[in-house]
Specification:
Shape: globular
Radius of gyration: 15 Å
Strand content: 25-35%
Helix content: 25-40%
Largest sheet: 8 strands, mixed
Order of helices and strands: EEHHEEEHEHEHE
Distance between the termini: 21 Å
Length: 167
């Protein structure tokens, strides 16, 4: 488990704990994701899909028991068949942004990927990607990304692929 501490000058609930999600978290993860779907930052997924894929998710939970963020990781071979993974559905609630929760989630999910023997992690973002870049991701790698995942990227969303090599 990982903890996140608010930066000075930001208001939020107390420290969050990053933990594996369970099926019982599916409805809360869905609710957390809805504003990002409306903005076009995340794909729309039914609540039942969050329950089905709960094992893919890590969640950041506040001391009061509210979900402040989530991220999912799924192993997929890259274009050359090497052990890779895709990071998806990464979001932090608006009131919890700027508090270190996104960084805590990224550290935890990258540690999980490394523990699974993954050599590279791919993600796509319609945003600036700045948080990913601060955590060692680089822009590009589309041609090396897992083909099945790459084929489902929606060009209309303006997503860019980012890649992080793990040692």
């Amino acid at each position: 488990m990982t903890t996140a501490t608010p930066r000075p000058g930001f208001r939020s609930e107390p420290v969050a704990v990053v933990r594996p999600a369970g099926r019982s978290d599916a409805a809360a993860v869905h609710r957390l994701s809805v504003p990002f779907v409306r903005e076009g930052a995340l794909r729309d997924r039914p609540a039942s899909r969050y329950a089905r894929d709960a094992a893919d998710f890590l969640v950041a939970e506040t001391a009061r028991g509210h979900l402040a963020g989530c991220v999912a990781l799924r192993r997929r071979p890259d274009a050359r068949g090497r052990a890779a993974a895709v990071l998806y559905n990464f979001c932090v609630a608006a009131g919890s942004q700027g508090c270190g929760i996104g960084s805590a989630l990224l550290r935890a999910v990258l540690a999980e990927a490394a523990a699974q023997g993954v050599s590279r992690v791919f993600t796509a973002t319609a945003g600036s990607g700045l948080l990913f870049l601060r955590h060692g991701f680089v822009m590009g790698g589309e041609e090396e990304a897992p083909p099945e995942w790459r084929a489902r990227l929606d060009p209309a969303r303006g997503s860019r692929v980012l890649l992080r090599a793990l040692t």
